[in-house]
Design a protein that fits this description.
It contains nine helices and no strands. With 216 residues, it is mostly helical.
């Protein structure tokens, strides 16, 4: 085995890893913000808010991410009349997809707060949105932390699917180096090790947070 192939191409591979983290971070931020809106809409008593949110969440949770990526990469440029580019297409697809999962995390977090907290907010003169903002969500976010961290790990793994539209993230760059160097075993073992290290760190962080929450 020629492990020197890794140092020879390390800058190129690290550039892909940086792009992977950028994609994961933007997807996490955008997906979580949209997920908060969808999660709260899922709990609304107003049917015109509840049903669209429910349909959206169930639709995207029923689809494979790779299909959603293809949708935004091929269909959106067709609709708007111009290409979006691989990175922007991946970002939109990831945010739209991950928001459906974050919405369920948010919904579960909000429902974990006793209803008495909501009534206490109303009794002080706060309306629904103020009660959610100042009383319910701050407490619910604490309960959401472990599943959010777990979802972050999943997003990091899923970024490799952007490979299918040619985005030169970490796995795609590993493949390009392999096409040139013909060192599949070394390169894909290295790629697997990188994913294992970062995902293991995230998993351990999630378990520690969950344990701390249980003990608290």
């Amino acid at each position: 085995m020629d492990w020197a192939v890794i140092p020879r191409n390390i800058n190129f591979l690290l550039g892909g890893l940086v792009l992977t983290f950028e994609l994961a971070a933007i997807s996490l931020a955008g997906g979580f913000l949209l997920g908060i809106i969808l999660g709260m809409a899922r709990l609304s008593s107003r049917k015109w808010i509840y049903y669209p949110a429910t349909i959206y969440i169930n639709l995207f949770r029923s689809l494979p991410l790779i299909l959603v990526i293809f949708w935004f990469y091929f269909m959106v440029p067709f609709i708007i009349g111009r290409p979006l580019g691989d990175f922007l297409s991946a970002i939109i697809a990831f945010i739209a997809f991950e928001a459906s999962y974050f919405a369920e995390i948010v919904r579960g977090g909000i429902q974990s707060i006793p209803h008495g907290q909501v009534m206490a907010g109303y009794s002080t003169g706060l309306n629904y949105y103020e009660t959610m903002r100042f009383i319910v969500l701050p407490q619910a976010l604490r309960n959401m932390v472990p599943p959010i961290v777990t979802q972050c790990v999943i997003i990091f793994q899923d970024t490799s699917l952007a490979y299918v539209i040619g985005l030169k993230e970490f796995l795609r760059r590993t493949s390009l180096v392999d096409a040139r160097e013909l060192r599949s075993v070394e390169l894909y073992l290295f790629a697997g090790l990188v994913y294992i290290v970062f995902c293991s760190i995230g998993t351990m962080a999630s378990r520690r947070l969950e344990k701390r929450q249980t003990e608290g």
